[in-house]
Amino acid sequence: MDWEAVIGLEVHVQLNTNTKIFCGCRNEFGAEPNTNVCPVCLGFPGVLPVFNQKVLEYAIKVGLALNCRIAGYTKFDRKNYFYPDLPKAYQISQYDMPIATEGWIEIDTENGPKKIGIKRVHMEEDAGKLIHGEGASYVDYNRAGVPLLEIVSQPDISSPEEAYEYLTTLKQIVQYLGVSDCDMEKGSLRCDANVSVRRRGEGKLGTKTEIKNLNSFKGVKSALEYEIRRQISALESGETIQQETRLWDANKGITQSMRSKEEAHDYRYFPEPDLLPIKVDSSTIESLRSELPEMPKARRRRLVEEYKITEYDAKVLCLEKEFADYFEETARLVKNPKKCANLMISILAEQLNQRGISVKDLAVSPEQLSELVNLWDEGKINNLVVKQVLEEMIETGKPAGAIVEEKGLAQVSDEGMLEGLARETIEKNPKVVQDYRSGKKNAVMFLVGQVMKATRGKANPQKVRQLLERLLEEGVG
Ligand SMILES: [Zn+2]
Q1: 379, 407, 435 — which closes off a domain?
Q2: Ligand 1 centroid vs 145 CA: distance in angstroms?
Q3: Is the overall model pTM greater than 0.90, yes or no?
Q4: Which of 375, 407, 439 is the last residue before a domain boundary?
């Protein structure tokens, strides 16, 4: 029998406001434990929260970018539970009147674009952080009161691949808005997944489980793959699925039962008495709408048109706003933007990955990179040398032209010299030539390799190949 998965994702995004959501403490990552705290975020009796208007602004922007309806009237509620990282024993969150509802985003799937519904976006405060040491646990309240948006999707996601694509698209939108860095490693983006399975064509939803402890987008994908298989095999062997929360163990590659899933009524939500409800008028919404930057999808379309690059190139370039900014700054200075896209997507991206840095940490400016792109485009250096020069540029900060000059890396295009080398190579390798003549046309690649070696990688490999083929056809060797 054919099964299908039904997946909904809950994403928590930390907003990068200067201060926390209900007090003036600084909102920064990596400070000494318990240094960004005050009586309000430590939950002392008798203190009153004051709402940070910047959080509302960011929440509305995110809501608009996710095509949501923005509430004209919204309020905060208390979510009551006890945990050592939550000093007040309640979290100020939003329950029945969230700031934004009924949105959608479009993701790419193998069957074309697909809309995933956004059920709601609400504002809330983060809890502190427990640090488990040897023989003791510690608590750091710096994170208590950091503003969060919870973004809840509709259960429109049908596969782990779609979940991955949804997260990538959502992260990209939030990053483009500049309201969060969405760094999962720092915990500024966190994700829980709800998943159930049912027989294909069946209308009724199966019992779902919630998966927590997902530390990367790849982790989300692997955890969902595992959990879907687990549920299907349980149902096929006649078992029932328990509604529960399960923890993903990335090392073992399995999910494990943590606790039975709590229901909303377990939290005894009630309206937050210390904060007034918020009215949002349409002029505020419209003025924030006018401040929205160009969104990733629109930018992809524009890059294809403006720089005559492929859809694929545009998609890769736009994954991160800074990368796309860097591309545009460079592409404006070069004769062939397509070459610029190639260089950035393959060679530059690889260099950044190896060093674990992003373009904003790069010592090479768009002007400097444009010089390299032009040298390559004009055939002054070949593909192999581009990489070497770029490496050198990143390490030394020297301009491309100077490096090429200094190291003698300019492409060898002296036909006479190349022909001499080609003839020599053919004469030295009679066996390879015989293979070539007996129909193994690929044997020529060995000869190309030999000539390239003799020029220390500086010849144009296509030219060398053409030259060798011509000589072999003419009967040399
Ligand atoms: Zn505080």
Answers
A1: 407
A2: 7
A3: no
A4: 407
